[in-house]
Amino acid sequence: MEKTIDKILDLLVKSNDYLSGEYIGELLGISRIAVNKQIKKIIANGVDIEITRKGYKYKESDSLTVQTLSKRLNEIGINIPVFIKEVASTNTEVKKVYPEVNKDFLYVAPRQISGRGRLDRVFVSGYGGVYMTLCYKPKKLLVSDSLKLVLLTGLAVAKALKKYTENVTIKWPNDVFVNGKKICGILLESVVTENMTEAIFLGIGVNITNEIPEELQNKVTSLKLENVQTIPREQLITEILQLLYEMLDRYQKEGFAPFIDDYYSLSITINHNVVVNVGGEKKSGFGVGLSEEGYLLLENNGKIEKIILGDIEV
Fold it and tell me: Are 67 and 61 in contact, with CB atoms under 8 Å apart?
């Protein structure tokens, strides 16, 4: 039935007028009742569909158009090309495009067909969320700066969400939580020449009104599930990028030091007892801080270990 949902949504998006359930049903070879059921699922996934006696109409209020998103970004001083298209993965698409674009650019998907998370895990990416990748082409950035850019991106997302809900936290290195459940994942990939970074691909996925599979709801959430007011996706994208660019500009001048206090105050890893899964080995300790590179410093029995790569269990 997922393909039927996609076909119905495609018809509605391409139409500038109301489409009746009978008309959609005839095109797709299904009943009017079946059309109605699928449209209710589309609405539950965060897509704004108007239902009247005339039929169904896709509303432009949260339609993620290049024109409106570009205009919003320009208004806050971010003048970058924007691409909006449903793709397998925004990071994958950006890697294909970046050699042809000589400046920063943003790729946004209404949904991702094959969203990826850290360590090539599947990232659930249904309609109603924010799924985007910023291609950031720094003037001067070392390979060793990469992890700190992940931390900065998480901090930007957390601060943006803080405007709408109070209980926002960050789990090292790349997850943002609301009320103790994951709401945002971040994936960084890069192109490196010698020891310098030519381009950074910052993938960001935030759950807003999209449905979360029932088997994941004890660990993963959305703003809708947490009863937070609905935020238009273009608005949240703009707010995240504004904060992120401000941080990136300051980072290039002053390093990570100006952000330490804010990061620690939102962290559920720093100044907490944690268990870290490092390559299948579980290590317990107290997160005492971050190293100069952004690695986790874990204290256990008076000894401090630097955790370069690991999963914090929550």
Answer: no
